[in-house]
Write a structure and sequence with these properties.
Layout lengths: L8 H12 L6 H5 L5 E5 L5 H14 L2 E4 L5 H10 L4 E2 L8 E5 L15 E5 L12 E4 L5 H11 L6 H14 L8 H12 L4 H8 L6 H12 L2 E5 L2 E7 L4 H11 L3 E8 L2 E8 L1 H5 L4 H11 L3 E4 L3 E6 L3 H16 L3
Parallel strand pairs: 1-2, 1-4, 2-3, 4-5, 5-6, 8-9
Antiparallel strand pairs: 7-8, 9-10, 10-12, 11-12
Helix pairs in contact: 3-4, 3-5, 3-6, 5-6, 6-7, 6-8, 9-10, 12-13
The structure holds manganese (II) ion.
Manganese (II) ion binds next to loops.
Length: 333
């Protein structure tokens, strides 16, 4: 009988999880056993995941991949960096998969992984027990952990690597609202390495870059009608393209709730957006869109603060109905 078989399983897992946990300075050495490496980002990959994965890929070699899709800001970062991201990469084609910015299998689509590592700032246990090694500690972003890995490995950090990490840091800290002293020290290092703060903010900007989009949004604003319902400002507008952007722009200009409607091949599309205060007051645009659409032989849904519908009927009538129900909801009727 071996000594190991006398130990309860959970104790064995606890001990082995301690062994697998490594420091940032040990990351480079831990990769040495593996040839083909994939840095894998979670679903709807954000700038923290992609910027971190990109910097690791550039520093130590390998491929960068993501599951299902990229977030809007993630896409914007990838095009600024000119990075290649393999969507839904075949994980069994790699000797090691390094999961970046996630610790739970579901977030990476539960693939069957043979050998993998984790680098993350979320504190879920999920994937840790089966990992070859991992770095997991509380930090305001994974980018900060990766920054320390690069410094400890004495890697030459290029401008692009620093920019990716800076955008990740800015977006995960809510533009430094949740920054710690460590966050700001890391960000200063990224700036020293050549990342531009203005460029990082531009990558995260929600202002549409296409001229057609900007024209549509400006037209939507000049045509907007604003109504006051109690303490709430409700805006409606008609525009035959970029309804979602237009509604969002009206909220950014000061409306609590905004709806933009346009006609597309005989059906009308309405997009709605609201600010946080309206959601906190109980507004649920997905429910409003669903109910308005149902009465107009259409379909609607989405999220509480962002929803849309497509239905039969004139834009004006549908906008009026959306606005009326929002006002009633916000004023407790
Ligand atoms: Mn993150």
């Amino acid at each position: 009988m071996t000594f190991g078989s006398l130990l309860p399983t959970y104790f064995y897992h606890w001990v082995s999880s301690l062994i697998m946990r490594i420091r940032e300075s040990e990351f480079k050495g831990s990769l040495r056993r593996f040839d083909k490496i994939l840095y894998l980002c979670h679903r709807n990959a954000d700038p923290d995941a992609l910027g971190s994965g990109y910097a690791l890929q550039k520093a130590f070699g390998g491929d960068l991949g993501a599951v299902e899709d990229l977030s809007r800001a993630g896409r914007s970062l990838i095009s600024a960096l000119g990075a290649d991201v393999i969507m839904n990469p075949p994980v069994d084609g790699y000797d090691l998969v390094v999961i970046v910015d996630a610790s739970v299998g579901l977030q990476i689509g539960n693939p069957t992984l043979s050998r993998y590592a984790v680098v993350d700032h979320h504190l879920d246990k999920g994937l840790l027990p089966g990992a070859e090694f991992y770095i997991q500690r509380s930090a305001t972003s994974t980018a900060e952990i990766v920054w320390t890995i690069l410094l400890d490995s004495e890697v030459k950090v290029t401008e692009d690597m620093a920019l990716g990490l800076l955008v990740g840091t800015i977006s995960d800290t809510g533009r430094f609202r949740r920054a710690s002293p460590d966050t700001l020290r890391a960000a200063a290092g990224m700036l020293d390495a050549g990342a531009g703060y203005d460029q990082a903010l531009e990558i995260l900007s929600r202002v549409p870059s296409e001229i057609s989009q900007r024209i549509a949004v400006l037209k939507a604003a000049t045509r907007a009608q604003v109504e006051r319902a109690g303490d709430w400002l409700l805006a409606t507008t008609e525009i035959n393209a970029f309804e979602g952007y237009s509604a969002m722009a009206l909220v950014n200009l000061g409306a609590d709730v905004a709806f933009a409607a346009g006609k597309h091949n005989g059906t009308t599309r309405v997009s709605g957006r609201s600010n946080r205060e309206a959601v906190r007051a109980g507004l649920d645009l997905s429910e409003i869109m669903r109910s308005v659409a149902k009465e107009a032989r259409g379909e609607g849904g989405g999220h509480r603060a962002a929803a849309a519908l497509e239905a039969e009927g004139e834009p004006k009538a549908l906008l009026l109905e959306c606005k009326k129900r929002s006002g009633q909801r916000l004023n407790g009727a």
